[in-house]
Amino acid sequence: MFRLDPDTFKRIHPIEFHRRFLANGIRPDGRESLLSWRTPVVHTGSITTCNGSAMVRVGATAVLCGIKAEIAVPSAAEPTRGFVVSNVDLPALCSSNFRPGAPGEFTQSISDTVQSVVESAVDMDGLCIEPDRAVWVLYADIVFLNYEGAAMDAALLALMAALRNTRLPSKTVYSPTDGTVRASSDLSVPITLKHLPVASTFGVVEAGGGRMLMADPTEDEDAIVGSRVSVVVDALSGDLMGTFGGHIPLELLEQSVVLATQRAKEVGQIVGASK
Amino acid sequence: MVLQRSDGRTDNLQLRPPTTTLSPLSRADGSARFAYGKSAVLAAVYGPKEVRLRDELLDSAKIEVLFRPLVGLSGTTERLYEKTIREILESVILKHLHPRTSVQTFEGADDDSSSLILSCAINATILALMDAGVGLKSMVASVTCIIDDSNQLVLDPSAEEIKGAKSVHVFTFDNVSKDVTSCVSTGVYTYEQYKSVFEVSQSACASVQAVYRQTMENKVGGVETVDEE
Amino acid sequence: MDSVDRKRIHGPDKSVLPLPLLDSQHESVTSKTTLNPSARFDGRTHEEVRPLFARTAMVSQANGSAYIEVGCIKIICAVYGPKQITTKSKSGDHHSGGRISCDVRLAPFAGLKRKGYMKDTNEHSLAKNLATALTPSLLLAHLPKSQIDIHIQILQATAGHVSASSTSSATVLPPPSFATNLSLLLSPCITVASLALADAGIEMMDSVVGCSVGLFRRTDKNSLFWMVDPSEEERETRALGGGVWVGNAVVGVMPSVGRISGLVVDGDVGDVGVLMEAVNVCVDACAKVHDVVVKKALVDGFHAASSPVSGSSSAV
Amino acid sequence: MAVSVCEREFTLTGVASNIRSDGRGRSDVRAAAVESGGISQASGSCRVSSAGGTTVLVGIKVAVGAPAVTASTAADADLDADIAVDNSEDAELSISDADLRRGRVVCAIDCNPAIIPTMDPRAVEDLCIDFSEVITKILNADHGGLDLQSLCIVPGSTCWVIHVDALVLGYGGNLLDTLFQATRGALHDTLIPKVTVEESTSASTGNTSYEFDVADDETEDLKGCENIPVIVTLFKIGHHHVIDPTPLEEACSDVQLSVAINRKGLPCAIQKTGNGSIEPSQLAEMIQDAKAHGATLFKDMDEAIERQRVRSLNDTK
Amino acid sequence: MAIVTPGERLGLNGEFIASHGTVEIGDHIYAAVVGTVTTTPSESDGERLIIQVVPKSKRNMAASIPEVSSIVTGKVLRVNPRMATLSIMVVGETPCADNFQGVIRVQDVRATERDKVQIYNSFRPGDIVRAEVISLGDSRSYYLSTAKNELGVILATSPAGATMIPISWEEMVCPKTKVVENRKCAKPVDA
């Protein structure tokens, strides 16, 4: 028989490579069970050009979120509602799977999902400066620096940590004559977050004749992941804030919600410890 | 207390009878129109057909989905819809039967109101695939539910009802394995609410699948009568 | 930009930064002009560069990568390849050796005002000058038919706006405009990219170190003087140390072989004598950076690189 | 362009012994003809054709536009400028004041790939973009000579935008220098309509508003044209360097140094291109040489432009 | 052991013969990659030692790109009567940064009876093949050859989904269905 070293084997036959790990219930990155997670590490405030920023690492995945506050006119329908504009960027820098240029379907759908979650998490009315005239718009740009899976989980975590880190000027003055807003130079007022959503992604894998959940699959493990589901749970209340998933048996979906609720509490504490 | 919904239905768990039209397009390999109330989607299927070299897959058909809103250009939400539909199709189509080919589907939304359109698009696409004769493992059907501001579960909401909803759920179920084929939920909701959404959606999907069956039977029946003539 | 980018999430059509409150405007912007003419803000000598932090192997997905921090500037770089050239070129070209492609991106939050995702000419010219400075160091003849992709993401390009943590400095600096700031970005880009290439194991003659030098005209006399690695404050406060900013030079140096691989000069930099003096000081500064920072980062990266573990050999 | 070993050796030896294939020495230039004012519908134009075959036509169009925010693309600048206009004071935080009080120059170069058959069409395109960036950067800078402040109409909102459109008609090497010569010539030829600005302060809001009027028949010269630098590109071939190279010589060169020389005869912008590296001592030598060539080029250009001026004056008489 | 970085002077080229990971400039030999220096006696030149710089981990391995005579491993993408197209994934023992394209032309499949070779009886899409690079080929593909005993298909999956077992140098059998298929099999080196 041919002897191949692990790197070569993984490269030429990724499915078989991962299947053998799966059969033993372990993971190539050293995790000891299918349901163990990579513990996120959160650092905040490293980018000083921002009102708030956070760097999150989940295993090798590294993502940086910077938030910049600007002033805009609110929409006529909702005169006190501010804006949060969150974009996820997976540049060619972070993995060879992404090409330079316009974002692909994957990136766009993550942006859209993150945006829909964050809109219900932030107290938008708290961003109002002068009803019908001026509100804060928070531009959140989430840039991946290294991509090893957990796109949705890491992106949302970085966004929420950065929002918690965001400070707005303590004093804003709206001038009705010329429509300008003046703000004090200190940044001291945090924004109000109604929820602390935490996303947990599971892959559905086939093992031993049945299907089971695999928590937090890496990019490489995609080779054997049939479909995936991301469950977003509010770490503060335990309420669900979104599920986005593909083909999954009902009982696994229920299991994933239960597991995600447990994990949200743990991750919530990590984010809560950051400032 | 008699409940009155904005479009005259009297029960929160009442499904509007979907309207379906099969083969409205003559040039596509298969096409179908599916509508819940005013929200309608026209789907067209082309394939299996020749694939571009760089998209070629060694052992299965390449599935491409293109979703277009009625007005305006498509944005990130449409990409999310496309991804959702494509993932459903990849689990449903017997794609390994047609290696090195592509199956393309196009969905044109007839109404831009919210998540309801995703359900319509999924259903229209499945009908169009059946119309095109593309081999499927099972029939999947999709419904939309909301939890309204009084924490009531409302099935098949109208556009106005969705606007005031606390959470919106789009569920797609398979008729063979009874698995969830796709779920997209947004908003804030509890686990108990989520579970009740499961149950309601699952039975509603079964009735949509009955509509599929009826639609297809009409078609096959129609062909037979033509043959006899 | 006639049409909106439909592939991103958009907020309101137009948004602006707030104006400073009137009372804060009275803070003196030019308070630093009274400084001792010979001293620099941070007490460096004219030949001294700012402390530099660099390390390699930051992006596990890439073949090589590096990160650099100079003052407030933070840059990450990843190298992918060598890979097969996919675009067709004129016949005969593909045997002549490999080529590099550089892509420089500013993160939307890297500057003071948020920048959109559309690539602008600043990024384009940074990438071009970077490629010019790197190419001479690489032994591309060893890589026929191949291309090396160098991706740079600038995470922070300027000092922060007056944030809560830094109000102690109490001075509101005049905002730097990006165009004038670019050359300050080019030199760390060169250093970090060369580090990433070395980390990727791409064969090279020497690593390239970038260094910039600011040229000033003395206000009292009509002579020029220079300062190596000017910080943003030094550059924007144009009346520094009794001098007026007249121009700057960015030099890419291969320190071991003592050659210059990249050079961009802007402004009325006076006669060749002064300019060459400044360039030579840059060459010396680069040699120091190479010995102290670059080598250490590479050696540290080498020690850290453990052979990948994923079980024993598998038989097929 | 692929060069065979023999061709390269021939060129290198020639350059080393100071005899180039067309008989010139290393520092000899080919004669160039400068004709300005050929295009009547442009605000200014100039055609430079070198004896080596490089022919360039530059047309200048001046238009009323918004001041630059950064030296970014025109489209980008327009968008940002919109914001600046509406809320001009906001600009203080992101744009330096000086940028709002001056006009700007936008340059675009067009070259049919068929004109440079030895290069890849995409490489030709890249070359055009690179050159247009070089020209745009120099002309918009303080050291670019042009009096951009004089192009300001309403501070912060309106100014003259000078569009430089260059067309490459023939290629025989030394394209950048020729392009810049032609641009310089065309700017000398450029006339801008006179503008009168009226300032009014509304009593109710205290805001100042401006109205301006562009004259139909009155024009004035562009200020500061004579101070625009010249670009001299030196091509290092082997251990020596040449100016005004042929396409073959360009292909044999591993380092190119483009030096902008101002009227004082001093360098004001330098850019190194090419795949090779250079020793500091040779760099100094090259810049010195560029200075010398720059001074000659200034003299030649001045003479050529003066001749054109005299001719056009005679024509109008 | 001392670690050298690119640009570090290793010695005069009168003393050493420059090998992998080094570069000669003028009279001197410099390191071209980060790694440790090793010297080995040369067989042809008794005076000088061969000097090379060895990178430690595979990740930092210099340039895993195919060169003439390197052994590569790849997957068959498509076949036609004239050639089989491969996606080269591994060069020597090192996985490449990105896949390279290679072709095995019908005349390069085996060393004997070249005129009787049929591509379809040698390779099928999806097979993993070990081959040698015989030339840098055209602008699109490297030219590969399997005309040696130890070269050829090393891994093939049958239509039934099982990994096939080689039973001779030109046949493989599916362990599930016992169907025999033709392949140009590689001879296991250490079996």
Automatic annotation (TrEMBL), chain A:
Protein keywords: Cytoplasm, Exosome, Nucleus, RNA-binding, rRNA processing
GO cellular component, one term: nucleolus
Biological process, per Gene Ontology: exonucleolytic trimming to generate mature 3'-end of 5.8S rRNA from tricistronic rRNA transcript (SSU-rRNA, 5.8S rRNA, LSU-rRNA); nuclear mRNA surveillance; nuclear polyadenylation-dependent rRNA catabolic process; rRNA catabolic process; TRAMP-dependent tRNA surveillance pathway; U1 snRNA 3'-end processing; U4 snRNA 3'-end processing; U5 snRNA 3'-end processing
Localization (cell): Cytoplasm; Nucleus, Nucleolus
Primary location class: cytoplasm
Domain Exoribonuclease phosphorolytic: start-end pairs: 38-169, 195-260
Keyword Glycoprotein annotated: no
Gene Ontology MF annotations: mRNA 3'-UTR AU-rich region binding
Superkingdom of source: Eukaryota
Family statement: Belongs to the RNase PH family.
PANTHER family named among the record's database cross-references: EXOSOME COMPLEX COMPONENT RRP43, EXOSOME COMPLEX EXONUCLEASE RIBOSOMAL RNA PROCESSING PROTEIN
Protein name: Ribosomal RNA-processing protein 43
Species of origin: Chytriomyces confervae
TrEMBL record, chain C:
Compositionally biased tracts (Polar residues): 27-37
Entries under PANTHER family matching the protein: EXOSOME COMPLEX COMPONENT, EXOSOME COMPLEX COMPONENT MTR3
Keywords: Cytoplasm, Exosome, Nucleus, RNA-binding, rRNA processing
Species, as recorded: Chytriomyces confervae
Family indicated by similarity: Belongs to the RNase PH family.
Lineage: Eukaryota, Fungi, Fungi incertae sedis, Chytridiomycota, Chytridiomycota incertae sedis
Domain Exoribonuclease phosphorolytic: 48-203
Keyword hit for Nucleotide-binding: no
Protein name as catalogued: Exoribonuclease phosphorolytic domain-containing protein
Record's subcellular location: Cytoplasm; Nucleus
GO terms assigned for molecular function: RNA binding
Any GO BP: nuclear mRNA surveillance
Biased amino acid composition, Basic and acidic residues: 1-13
Residue ranges of the region described as Disordered: 1-40
Record's GO cellular component terms: cytoplasmic exosome (RNase complex); nuclear exosome (RNase complex); nucleolus
UniProtKB/TrEMBL annotation, chain D:
Residue ranges constituting the Exoribonuclease phosphorolytic domain according to the UniProt record: 29-193, 227-289
Tree of life domain: Eukaryota
Molecular-function GO terms, alphabetical: mRNA 3'-UTR AU-rich region binding
InterPro entries with a match to the protein in the record: ExoRNase_PH_dom1, ExoRNase_PH_dom2, ExoRNase_PH_dom2_sf, Exosome_comp_Rrp42_subfam, PNPase/RNase_PH_dom_sf, Ribosomal_Su5_D2-typ_SF
The UniProt record lists the keyword Cell wall biogenesis/degradation: no
Predominant place of localization: cytoplasm
Keywords for this protein: Cytoplasm, Exosome
Gene3D superfamilies xrefs: GHMP Kinase, N-terminal domain (3.30.230.70)
Any one cellular-component term (Gene Ontology): nuclear exosome (RNase complex)
Localization per record: Cytoplasm; Nucleus, Nucleolus
Coiled-coil residue windows: none
One GO-annotated biological process of the protein: U1 snRNA 3'-end processing
Family that this chain belongs to: Belongs to the RNase PH family.
Protein's UniProt name: Ribosomal RNA-processing protein 42
TrEMBL record, chain E:
Top-level taxon in the UniProt lineage: Eukaryota
Pfam family, one: EXOSC1
Keyword Thylakoid (UniProt): no
Keyword line: Cytoplasm, Exosome
Keyword Cytoplasm: yes
Gene Ontology terms: cellular component: cytoplasm; nuclear exosome (RNase complex); nucleolus
Leader sequence segment: none
Gene3D superfamilies documented for this protein: 2.40.50.100, Nucleic acid-binding proteins
Listed GO biological process terms: RNA processing
SMART domains: S1
Residue stretches making up the S1 motif domain: 69-148
Single annotated GO MF: RNA binding
Localization terms from the record: Nucleus, Nucleolus
Protein name: S1 motif domain-containing protein
Naturally occurring in which organism (per UniProt): Chytriomyces confervae
